[in-house]
Amino acid sequence: MIVGGGQSGHGGSVTRAAGGPASVMLCDAAVMARGTLITIEGLDGAGKSTLAAGLLDALTARGVGVRLLREPGGVVLSERIRTLVKDPELTVDPRAEALLYAAARAQLVAERLVPLLDAGTCVLLDRFVDSSLAYQGAGRGLGIDAVAAINALATGGLQADRTLLLRLDPSVGRARQAGRGQAPDRLEQGSAAFFDRIAAAYDQLAAGDPRRFRVIDASATPEAVLTASLAAVQDLV
Ligand code: ATM
Q: Using a 6 Å cutoff on CB, does residue 127 contact ligand 1?
């Protein structure tokens, strides 16, 4: 894993964030970490959960010590926040939404992620900071920089070693979601324009950090998506 703007690397090479004492203090918890953090991103309906389960099985079969977590969630507080943010009955201001996701993330990082990485575990994480940048920063219009700033506080600068972006046309994602036959949650009730902004932001984030991102065609079969994803992490695990 990476802390701050440093280099990625197999086994989790870690670099302190540049900046003043506050950055250094925030990074202390993660400085000793040895594990590898792989995040999975994409629109709803892109197949993240299927891929995450496939990667977990494939890496476990290879003898890799691997754990799968999701966001928001993974620990009790964050799972409760997940229920809140998805509830279609609730009114949630975009800033409150961004802060709720960041709060859930902060607890997951402190309670599970850093301890697992410290123990040398490979962590597969279904969504991380990029989801907030795309959904709240671009989708809700809060701005990528503002959302990145609150997430720097939430994570202490922890970044993924590799991010698999399951790229899907937003209309295909909506069709897959509708095909599930479940009532849409609060986020899924967003407009087509909302999801178009999110998809465009994901593309920009990936283009801006090609060392960390690998873009996977999510319109392919689940088997092909898994094969491409395994190839995309083979230098890390
Ligand atoms: P899933 O884990 O089932 O994808 O649901 C999480 C929802 O929360 C998802 N909604 N849709 N569509 C994406 C959204 N989300 C954010 O808006 N920001 C975040 O930071 C995260 C982690 C998720």
A: yes
- 3-state DSSP assignment of residue 50: helix
Q: Which residues are paired to 36 by β-bridges?
A: 122
Tokens 């986020």, residue located: 187
- Residue-wise pLDDT for 101-145, tens only, equals 999 999 999 999 999 999 999 999 999 999 999 999 999 999 999
Dist CA 52 CA 72 (whole Å) = 15
Q: Is the CB of 82 under 6 A from ligand 1?
A: no
Asked whether the bond before 72 is cis by omega within 30 degrees of 0, the reply is yes
pLDDT at position 188 is: 86
Helix (H) or strand (E) run with residue 155 in it: helix 144-155
- Return the DSSP state at 29: G
Nearest ligand 1 atom to the CA of 48 is 4
pTM, entire model: 0.88
- Cα(141)–Cα(149) distance, integer angstroms: 15
Cross-strand pairs, 167: 217
SS3 content of the chain, % helix, strand, coil (to 5): 50, 15, 35
CA angle 70, 75, 79 (to 5 degrees): 70
Which residues is 74 bridged to in the sheet?
none
In 3D space, the residue among 132, 79, 140 whose CA is nearest the CA of residue 102 turns out to be 132
